[in-house]
């Protein structure tokens, strides 16, 4: 028997989970599809030797402001516990390590104290970043009107052009541009506005969520059960059945069933979206637009655990740049220029014991593993194994340069290449989806099928917050301003003392 739903959501990453809950909380019947065996996308966790590790979600801005509003709207809080983490930046070619204080004003003053001759330029940068963030209506969920209004002049100015206009160069430029590693787009391509929208919260108050992305997935499972969301894994759209007026209200699924619905939201990579649309809806211009998107970097990641006590261990993130020329790090043209994140966390194993884990993730680009593109995980041969072993040794060396006390005590439990992420998560294995190039018209909002929408980290802003925001924008358009504001006000009233 054919089942009917109000909304069909394709993809169960943070965007799919978010919009499914928002729609179901309004009383709609929601079916969520996930092609993999488990839900969560890069928010998933996995275990090695009974110890949990993150797949792709490592840290976030504090759960206050816009991020806090979204978490409360989803009714995840107070279930999500945050842990403040220290942030360090290391410029390997200059052998300089910077310990960033908490809070943007303290970071600004710290940079000014290090480079007094550049202090005025540094202050101007921080003032501009603050103004851009505060004047972005998207970050005020409670504001009336269309959430995507408020385009600023800095949306048409690249980060590189702005830093050049201030005359910022050398180490100061490296420090201010270092958060490009959190969106994966070079300084000359990302708009100043989008860079600041990503960096503002991370620079102000970086935290990790206890249980990391797994805590989000478990909170979603609980709420999905309460709201009656139907979830099907190992299942996606096999064929869309177009109807009149460029719409589609029925699809055949890969599990052999057929379902009908009012509207569909795709929260998957643009390439995957194009593959699922019927040929009659994939015009030459539409396909050309998608082909012009350029993938961001992927990660090579190693997962390890420290054995024995370590008095110096603390939960922190250290970003190590092989070169202080950040522009080189974010493009595939300079394979020796890398950014490596080293995340130290305390985790509870399946046995209840506490473990000190080390997760190191380094940006890589598709050409590095192109020779194995036609293979799948577990079937790549000895040359690939040697490649992974070499990458692990290189990353261990970078870890020991910053944490010499770890040498001889760090046990590597696993590693993953960009192809591993491709096989399990996204069509290309990129960490942040497509590069967020200035002036680019991303795939976001309505699709050529008029009752189909698309959202996700490739749509608006990269990362968990950007992906969640895209879900809120689409939800707002789908349910209308009256219902949207009523639901937002319910949260505001619940928050009042």
Detailed description of the structure:
The chain has 497 residues and is α/β, with parallel strands linked by helices. It has a domain at 3-80 and 211-293 and 436-495: FAD/NAD(P)-binding domain (3-Layer(bba) Sandwich), CATH 3.50.50.60. It is built from 15 helices and 22 strands. It has helices at residues 14-25, 65-73, 104-114, 119-134, 159-166, 170-177, 192-204, 212-227, 270-276, 284-291, 326-329, 381-402, 418-424, 463-479, 481-495; strands at residues 3-4, 7-10, 30-34, 45-48, 51-54, 60-61, 82-84, 86-91, 96-100, 206-209, 230-233, 237-242, 248-253, 258-260, 263-266, 298-306, 316-321, 339-348, 354-364, 410-416, 445-446, 452-454. The strands form 5 sheets. It has a 7-stranded mixed β-sheet with strand order 9-8-17-18-19-16-20, sandwiched between helices. A hairpin with a 5-residue loop joins strand 12 (237-242) and strand 13 (248-253). Helix 14 packs across helix 15 (481-495). The longest helix has 22 residues, at 381-402. The chain is globular, with a radius of gyration of 22 Å. The mean pLDDT is 93.
Helices and strands in order:
Layout: E1 3-4, E2 7-10, H1 14-25, E3 30-34, E4 45-48, E5 51-54, E6 60-61, H2 65-73, E7 82-84, E8 86-91, E9 96-100, H3 104-114, H4 119-134, H5 159-166, H6 170-177, H7 192-204, E10 206-209, H8 212-227, E11 230-233, E12 237-242, E13 248-253, E14 258-260, E15 263-266, H9 270-276, H10 284-291, E16 298-306, E17 316-321, H11 326-329, E18 339-348, E19 354-364, H12 381-402, E20 410-416, H13 418-424, E21 445-446, E22 452-454, H14 463-479, H15 481-495
């Amino acid at each position: 028997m054919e089942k009917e739903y109000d909304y069909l959501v394709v993809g169960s990453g943070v965007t799919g989970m978010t919009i499914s809950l928002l729609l179901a909380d309004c009383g709609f019947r929601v079916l969520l599809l996930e092609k993999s065996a488990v839900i969560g996308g890069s928010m998933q966790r996995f275990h090695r030797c009974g110890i949990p590790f993150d797949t792709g979600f490592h840290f976030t801005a504090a759960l206050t402001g816009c991020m806090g509003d979204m978490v409360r709207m989803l009714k995840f809080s107070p279930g999500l516990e945050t842990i403040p983490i220290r942030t360090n930046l290391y410029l390997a070619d200059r052998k300089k390590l910077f310990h960033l204080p908490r809070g943007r004003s303290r970071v600004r003053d710290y940079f000014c104290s290090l480079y007094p001759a550049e202090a005025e330029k540094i202050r101007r940068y921080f003032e501009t970043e603050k103004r851009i963030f505060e004047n972005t209506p998207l970050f005020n969920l409670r504001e009336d009107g269309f959430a995507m209004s408020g385009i600023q002049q800095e949306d048409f100015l690249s980060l590189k052009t702005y830093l050049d206009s201030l005359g910022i160069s050398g180490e100061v430029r490296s420090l201010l541009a270092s958060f490009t590693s959190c969106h994966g787009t070079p300084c000359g391509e990302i708009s100043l506005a989008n860079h600041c929208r990503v960096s503002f919260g991370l620079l102000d108050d970086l935290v990790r969520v206890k249980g990391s992305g797994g805590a989000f997935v478990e909170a979603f499972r609980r709420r999905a059960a309460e709201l009656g969301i139907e979830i099907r894994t190992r299942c996606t759209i096999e064929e869309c059945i177009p109807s009149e007026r460029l719409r589609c209200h029925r699809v055949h699924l890969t599990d052999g069933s057929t379902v009908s619905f009012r509207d569909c939201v795709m929260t998957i990579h643009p390439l995957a979206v194009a593959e699922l649309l019927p040929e009659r809806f994939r015009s030459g211009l539409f396909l050309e637009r998608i082909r012009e998107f350029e993938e961001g970097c992927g990660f090579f990641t190693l997962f390890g655990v420290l054995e024995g006590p370590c008095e110096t261990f603390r939960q922190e993130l250290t970003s190590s740049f092989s070169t202080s020329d950040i522009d080189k790090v974010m493009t595939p043209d300079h394979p020796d220029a890398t950014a490596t994140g080293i995340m130290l966390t305390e985790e509870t194993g399946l046995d209840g014991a506490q473990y000190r884990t080390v997760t190191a993730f380094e940006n890589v680009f598709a050409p590095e593993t192109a020779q194995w593109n036609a293979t799948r995980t577990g079937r790549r041969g000895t040359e690939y194994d040697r490649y992974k072993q070499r990458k692990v040794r290189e990353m261990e060396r970078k870890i020991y340069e910053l944490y010499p006390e770890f040498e001889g005590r760090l046990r590597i439990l696993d590693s993953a290449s960009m192809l591993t992420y491709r096989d399990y998560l996204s069509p290309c294995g990129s960490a942040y989806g497509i590069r967020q190039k200035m002036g680019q018209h991303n795939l976001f909002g309505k699709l050529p099928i008029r009752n189909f929408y698309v959202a996700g980290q490739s749509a608006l802003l990269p990362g968990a917050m950007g992906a969640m925001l895209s879900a809120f924008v689409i939800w707002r358009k789908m349910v209308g301003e009256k219902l949207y504001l009523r639901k937002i006000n319910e949260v505001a009233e619940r928050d009042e003392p």
